[in-house]
């Protein structure tokens, strides 16, 4: 396992054919703030986050995950990581250099083992942000991203070996074996999770709300706006966080969450939870039962961006 050089999740970038509909959803009902837009690309911030943006949308002929971006503490750490990845046989898309997106910075891009584009950057200018007020039901920040992989253990081992992720917990069942690994780069239970799927794709993107009241108000707003609620509200056992999942206009799953567990990394030992037990998927028992139809929605469409770097 490599030493940890990543600090946090920065943003998730999506490409979609119906750009206007997608932008209306994220900058409207979902509660993000459009901070910049230029010829079919928009950058959306969470009001409580110091990140310049947490979602980038790009107009494209085909739906795809453009990239997942992580932060590093310094330009020196970016260079160190690039050297390690190159020495480890990882295919770099770009060499470390100036980042030409809001906030600037210094970074580079590379492919993960499934062909997703990953970006790592440092020295990005901090966005002026604010405290989210009581009853204000908009995202505070980007919480985590979950990725589907056809070879769960290979992908987990790659992220541990090359990027210093550590395993927090695993979901398993007697009939399906291991189906999800929760991975961390800090004391936050997971910044990323890997789900067993039929193909490489985006499983879901999660946004943290101020508290449970704001989480429920936000969930209600999305339901009233007519968007499909997949699953929730409830509280997971792994991570101990609340959840409500929706589909965005292009069939990507998005989640509102709160209270994701913070670990004592020195004493933490990963659990293997049997997700066939209802209290594992939802401690409260308030969510609709998890079933094959919900699982299938989260498989998403096969990602057209595997081993194809986004144009911007």
UniProtKB/TrEMBL annotation:
**Pfam families recorded for this chain?**
Glyoxalase (PF00903)
Q: In the UniProt record, does the keyword Chaperone occur?
A: no
Domain named Orange: residues: 1-9
Instruction: Tell me the ranges covered by the VOC domain, including all copies.
Output: 8-123, 141-259
InterPro entries reported in the protein's UniProt record = Glyas_Bleomycin-R_OHBP_Dase, Glyas_Fos-R_dOase_dom, MMCE/EMCE_epimerase, Orange_dom, VOC_core
- Signal sequence interval, chain numbering: none
Keyword annotations for this protein, in alphabetical order, are: Metal-binding
Can you say what this protein is called? Answer: VOC family protein
Q: Write down the species.
A: Streptomyces gilvifuscus
